[in-house]
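User: I'm new to structure prediction. If I give you an amino acid sequence, what do you actually give back? Let's try with this one:
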Amino acid sequence: MTLWTGAEAAAATGGRLQGDWSVTGVSIDTRTLEAGDLFVALKAARDGHDFVAQALAAGAAAALVSRLPDDVAADAPLLIVPDVLEALEALGAAARARTGARVAAITGSAGKTSTKEMLLRVLSDQGPTHASVASYNNHWGVPLTLARMPRETRFAVIEIGMNHPGEIAPLARLARPHVAMITTVAAAHLEAFDSVEDIAREKSAILDGLEPCGIAVLNTDLAESGILFDHARELGATAFGFGVEAEDYHLLAAEVTGDTTRVRARTPRGEVAFTLATPGRHFAMNALGALAVADALGADPAGVVASLPRWSPYRGRGARELLGLPDGTLTLLDDSYNANPVSMAAALAVLASVAPEGRGRRIACLGDMKELGPQGPSLHAGLASLPAMAQIDTVHCIGPLMRALHQALPAHQRGLWCETSAELAVKLPGLVGKGDVVLAKGSLSMGLAKLVDALRGIGQGGAFPGDKT
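Assistant: Good question. You get back a string of structure tokens that encode the predicted 3D arrangement of the chain. For your 469 residues, that looks like this:
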């Protein structure tokens, strides 16, 4: 199905059209490009213009460029613009303008991707739904998500992130949501902010993009909740709260039992109960917020409650896997995609709640939490005093900041400290065994995925990162 004709894309961007073409998708990466896509030659770590010829050879129907690359035919199907990123933003704005979709935008220091995926799961059962891929939530991810939105979309869920002040509001205004949600506010990105209160103010800027009569869905259980609700009032937005302290979407119970979390809540439509197919009180909170967003979008509430049990986290975001070992199995909690103090505490609580089999142990493999500024060492050391830590047998630490936690742990819990994930991965065969429950958690740049891959390789007789073969 056609997503953009060349004429439509040219009208949206003001660019110069070359050739008569239409596209069925939009891509910025030749590795994931599909035949029929519009290849967008963004300049990031590398200049996308260097890959235009490769994209066209791989089946791209056209390319969005600011110049004709030397290795591309003069008559190639192109849309030529002064600035590729600005053109992508214009294409996203045009896609948003031409659809009648009800749009939600989500931000937060933790939980935004999981909540977005929950909403994608439950709303897709009620009509054509479009959402951000993975964590495409930055200055190019949001316009790319919008530019990919089909005309017939009924619901859209746009994830918005930030690293520095002033990033959220422009993206929110581009997305123009009918509903905006803030999952939580935490000590993340403190290198760029003076305080958690300043982070809350930046997160609340997502409300600046709300459409007239827009609705804010806000976490009531935060020390900074007042900042969020005050900004909603300043903008004249209707605000609904979710959480233990909330009157609107009030969490009555979240009981973690084995592989599941049983949730009871009181909503404006009455009491609801559902079971999530994954353990974690934080997932219960995300689900409650997602329920509030779905209500505000006009989805059928009963259908949403019925669909929530069909959601499960995916790899790197708290996914639970049973892995084979030569003499049995172990349980992997793969939360390796990212980390900050709040998400780390939530992941450790999940680890504490999962019972090992037989003589198995609870083992945490934790990597540095980045972008915490001068408070970084103390925030890492503070993990040792979390209530969940009392239930964990061994903690292996990775990275210079995690040395602070390693030193703060009591001797009986102190595992290995390693500089890198690859260094610890090589040693894993002697550190884990039958019946263990193993958590992998750290900031993305720490490469905890190497540990996860190593764990998966144990039962397959695979080589470990660093092994000579």
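You can read the tokens as a compact description of the fold. Here is one thing that stands out. Residues 461-469 have pLDDT under 50 and may be disordered.
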